[in-house]
Amino acid sequence: xxxDYARMKKEWPKQKGALTRAVKTGDLEKVKKVCADAVRVWDxxxxxxxxxxxxxxxxxxxxxxxxxxxxxDL
Length: 74
Known about the structure:
Elements: H1 5-25, H2 28-45, H3 53-62
Helix pairs in contact: 1-2, 2-3
């Protein structure tokens, strides 16, 4: 499956903005939704971005110990 670079170029700035807004709320469920939506798009595009770890760090930062959420599980 070829990578849809045009779609990723369009979606990536929106995803980063949505993640920033979700993190600012401090609500884990909102961050999980944004991350799940992003992973869905990345899978449709055919590749994860180089900075995918930004989304995992956001989950790590908002989750309260001992809860751990992995992007792979979303």
